[in-house]
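Posting for a labmate who doesn't have an account.
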Amino acid sequence: MAQILAPCTQWQMRITKSSTSACPMTAKMWNSLLFRQNKKGAIAKSAKFRVLAVKSENSTINRVEDLLNLDITPFTDKIIAEYIWIGGSGIDLRSKSRTISKPVEHPSELPKWNYDGSSTGQAPGEDSEVILYPQAIFRDPFRGGPYTDLTKLVHYSNFVMKVICDTYTPQGEPIPTNKRHKAAEIFRNPKVIAEVPWYGIEQEYTLLQTDVNWPLGWPVGGYPGPQGPYYCGAGADKSFGRDISDAHYKACLYAGINISGTNGEVMPGQWEYQVGPSVGIEAGDHIWGSRYILERITEQAGVVLSLDPKPIEGDWNGAGCHTNFSTKSMREDGGFEVIKKSILNLALRHKDHISAYGEGNERRLTGKHETASIDSFSWGVANRGCSIRVGRETEKQGKGYLEDRRPASNMDPYVVTSLLAETTLLWEPTLEAEALAAQKLALKV
């Protein structure tokens, strides 16, 4: 970190060639420093003053931080937009910034952009251009902005924003990692629109120490005490990374992410936050937006974010992304019968859902640690060891929602949310298959 050093004696610039002592000088001191005359007159023209780039524990001047906090509002009407997209692995997030000349009210007003897909594993080197289509806008908690009304993103002389994009070839075809395109088609279906699908997604994640890739709060190469006191726990020996969780919570609220809560999880160093209720494609946009914010916060904190569904093998809980789902018919009187019919459809398409619910999920869905086995489908009321859980209140009221506990923490929310809508609202099983599934699951619809 750069420091400005000046002679200590009364902060006077009475420097001689023999001067050797130096002490840190604050920015205010630098700006207000007056050249004084000594008894013999003005400072000799040959005297030299040096600015040294050294590190000191005292009076640190962080000029980079000053620039990051710089208010540019009085000087420009332009906007900084951070274009964000999903990389070649299907789970990594990439972004880059550009200047926009004026405020916008809708993502469609933003220009399309492009990037080098050969560097993200999404295009060959000889035809590497991938096109970014802006799809959703959020406020940027990292660069800030002069907001007075946090419910809007428009009519400000200067602000910054995060732009969630999906990805296309120059010919306008969605590339393979663009899962948003198909999801949007499903959510545009009139049958799906009429049912107003709601989602509440529980995103679990693990914080890892840098270099060693071992959970935060764990002794390096060792293990903490067994699970039990950590879930929603408080205290230095139970909670590891609360500042990151809290920072993420506030940053999401600032950004306009529909975050609804957060808590410490069962495995130490593991946390969860919830997003929703969100309608349709919005659920995927908000989860990806919240993941990007979490990546940036852990970057600044010097901690590694892991969405691996089973980051530590053994007697430890894995990390999931439980997805709560309901339709208009489920939420109305008689909705419990609609929920049971939906469970039948989900049972019949169990393999299709499992194959789309996250990489490495077989290490998590073992039938232990509050999971069902990956090889079989089950449902139950208030049973966290089932594939699908129905809450006691839903059973009591005769309407409500279901919770799909199968998705892994690294699932693509566009895939999971649209597949739930497709299976329960658009897909029709044969009567024979439905009868067999109902008998096996002891369901009457």
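Reply:
Got it, the structure tokens are right above this. The chain has three domains: 1-70, 74-178, 190-441.
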